[in-house]
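Example record used in the benchmark description.
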Amino acid sequence: MASYIARRKFLATLGGAAAAWPLAARAQQGERMRRIGVLETTSLPLNAANFEAFRQALRELGYIEGRNLIIEYRFAEGRPEHFPELAMELVRLNCDLIITRGTPAALAAKQASETIPIVMTSTAEPFTLVSSIAHPAGNITGLSSLGIDLYSKRLELLKEMIPMLARIAHLAHMGNPTIVRSRREVETAARSLGIASSLLDVRKPEDIGPAFDAASNQRVDALIVGTDAVTQPNRQFIALLAARYRLPAIHSSREFVEAGGLMTYGASFPDLYRRAAIYVDKIFKGAKPAELPIEQPMKFDFVINLRAAKAIGLAIPETFLLRADEVIE
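Model output (structure tokens):
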């Protein structure tokens, strides 16, 4: 575990950590230095589009890395069991605030500290963490991705795109508490559309390959892929296997489509990250997390990757493409 943490410390310094001499200069200027801990599912390079939206929003609010802000970035790299130790490390660094993505990361941060403010860039199931959306209580607030509530829409889109769709497989990490409810949503939506549904439970990166073998053996027609600490960092591998097995797949985040996936419908994560910076600013200016309601997405992405469609031999109707917010050709 020590080498695991050390590696992330090294990676986290790339592209953002301030050197020692600017710290001294800032101390002379008397400007207060804020330290934000980040508990993420994947590395900074793989999370660049989302995290840059967060950084840019912070800059617009007056928080400049190397002048009045330090960001400590830690990530689980497909191993959600590492979240508790990573969260404790951020607590030991005396972070003023912790940013999280996903419910397991937020739970780990909440268990690590009852006093450090926690801002969620996204969670699929807020009630796993708080008893009230309007009054979160405790030290946690932020944004919901509505990840669970949109599964029925994703299945409808799959069915519309593939009218003969008869069987889907749900690729997800059932150790994530939010995925349990997601599974129920998928089963309910599938029944309503007359589609058979099976589960491909991936608890670690090594489970992904065998899951696609199982999907092939089950003769499924398409996949619905959950977004969590196992699937997100391995999205390129998932897209590769989907192409190899010629399986259409729908995702909840455009990151998967940018990595080669077929289609996504869900909240805009860059927009959620941008809005998370507003929470940070409010808290740094004196607001308490318990007083800040958890907000829902305001912007959604419906993106289709034509290259992925061609790779699996899937013809997408022009009328379907016209409804997309973006088509990758």
